[in-house]
Amino acid sequence: MTSEWLGSNRSALAIIRVSSKRQEGNTSHETQENEIRAYCARMGLKLIDVVRIVESAKDSEDRKKYQAAINSSLTREIRHLLFYMYDREARNLTDNEKNEKLVKADLLCIHYVRDSKVLHRGSPDSDFFIRDVQAAANKQFVRNLTAKVVDAMRSKAEQGWYPSNNPPLGYVTVRIKDANGRPLKRGAVVGVDPLEKNVRQVRREFELRALGFSYEQIRLKIIGEGFIEPERVSQYQAGAIEYRLKNPFYEGRFLWRGIEYPGLHELIIPSHHIATVRRLRSGLKLVPRPVGAGQHGMLAGGWIRCGECGCFVVYDPKTKIYRSGETATFHYYRCSNRRRLHASLRGMNIPEAKLWEQLDRAVDAIQISPELGGQLARALNESYREETIRSAQKAQGLKDELRALEVREDRAYDDYSAGVLDPDGYRRAIARVRTLKQDVRSQLEAIQSLSTGRALETAKSVFELAMHAKELYLSRSPSDRRSFLELICSNPVLNGATVEYNLKKPFSTLSEINENGEWRTRLGEVLTDCAGLQGGIFLGIQGTGAGS
Ligand SMILES: [Zn+2]
How many CA atoms lie within 13 A of 540 on its CB side? Predict the structure, then answer.
């Protein structure tokens, strides 16, 4: 029987699905393929290709391979798509719908070889319906299968073993061994990576973090210490380090589908590093390094002024001797009163801790989240690219103008030699052209010396600093902290017991962005502010203490 569905295009593509595990009732690869070839011969179809899809655990993987096969048949203008049976077609209702549309558009004929069934444009609705029912049943099958896998993994998690095949750096999955030490077919647990370098790398990351390094500083240090192969350096990102250091896995717990389980895996990070890193994790829990003996008085020395008279505030410790003979020193600051404007200094002594407490808040104000920092840096990169293009276009315009002026100068000379211009007229013409040329040249120089690139680098340093401001600040000595504050605050004034100050640009802008979240309109401003700063200062601050 020649049929209406055959059309003039006899080329066919067969899709064979085989399960990776031999399951009962599964028709083997070879059987499916043999029957398909026989079918093609019988029906007068020309089999162009056989695509074998080995079912994987991942539904999305199967779908990808399946979709690629369908797409290739369409692009190669293959009209006939062959399956062994219904359940070998779609296991997914979306794919089912897609194919139905293709069939109805007469772009595709679907054959089910075992049942000698053809689905084509002219097929009765009942045929499409049967196929739908079949697909729905398949979907249910997959659903059951998925549920079983999920159950098995959850029970593994409950037993204390991380169910994923991809444990974090420093760990690998190891097959469980039987009593004779032979690895079992099923069942794997998480063990320490035999590649010692991987374990050492995670340990080192934790260690550096515990020493107060920022994620970026850790990245540079780890690269510098040769842990990362050159070709992997670009993939080794601060974000990944942060993620790793926050992963409860290294503390003996793991997250599985939103639930945290206590794990049985061996720990590879020393517990004191874990404790320190955990304390560092939340910015709120950061405690300033205590001010040691000999580190008091750092806020004096001509920085904070008295709000009443404008004189500098000085350090004036008071030592009290108790009857027992013991002494205690109280660290006070007060107005120097050099201009003698205060009749008395009674009640004007402010404890040092009170000053620090208020100044520390300046650092809170400029601390930005990693998300915001990332957004800002990306947006700046973008605008920098645009700016570079604009400058290049403008420079080209000016160069063209310069060339036009040179032509004008030549022409004036021609006019002069031809007698059209008298010497005076020639001199005037030349003078005019040269003034114009000078003007264009200085515009050109201005563009070329505009170092947007350096401002961009500075801006990035500022963001990096602002993202880690609090931890950098608190881990430093009081004198470093004072320098940091001088960098971000201007004109601190002591009014009574209150320190008032302004944030310097661009930090004031950052603190405003922090408050209202509106950064898109402020980018240009930040960049301009950064152009006025010296990038070196920031890098210096970031570098200080990191290695010590
Ligand atoms: Zn005063």
Answer: 8
Kindly report, residue by residue over 202-235, the tens digit of the pLDDT.
999 998 887 777 888 889 889 988 999 988 888 8
Backbone angles phi, psi at 167, to 5 degrees: -70, 160
Alpha carbon of 341 to ligand 1 centroid (Å): 7
What pTM value is reported for the model?
0.42
- Spatial separation of the C-alpha atoms in residues 268 and 249, rounded to whole Å: 10
Region 456-479: mean pLDDT is 78
* Contact criterion met (CB below 8 Å) for 12 and 118: no
Q: How far is the CA of 308 from the centre of ligand 1 (A)?
A: 5
Cis amide linkage into residue 492, ω under 30° from 0? no
* DSSP secondary structure string for all residues of 243-266: HHHH-GGGGTEEEETTEEEE--SP
Dihedral sign of CA atoms 515, 519, 521, 525 in order: positive
Classify residue 312 by its DSSP letter. B
> 10 Å Cβ neighbour count for 517?
9
Residue in the block written with tokens 């075992």:
114
Q: How far is the CA of 386 from the centre of ligand 1 (A)?
A: 51
Which pLDDT does position 138 carry in this prediction?
Answer: 66
**CB 157 within 8 Å of CB 258:** no
Centre of ligand 1 to C-alpha 111, Å, is: 96
CA distances, 193 to each of 168, 174, 175, 242 (Å): 10, 9, 13, 21
Three-state secondary structure call for residue 449: helix
* 216 within 8 A of 238, measured Cβ to Cβ: yes
Measured in Å, residue 485 CA sits from the centre of ligand 1 at 22
C-alpha of residue 490 to centroid of ligand 1, in Å:
18
- Torsion sign across C-alpha atoms 210, 471, 540, 381: positive
* pLDDT 10s digits, 480-492: 888 889 888 999 9
300 with 198: CB under 8 angstroms?
no
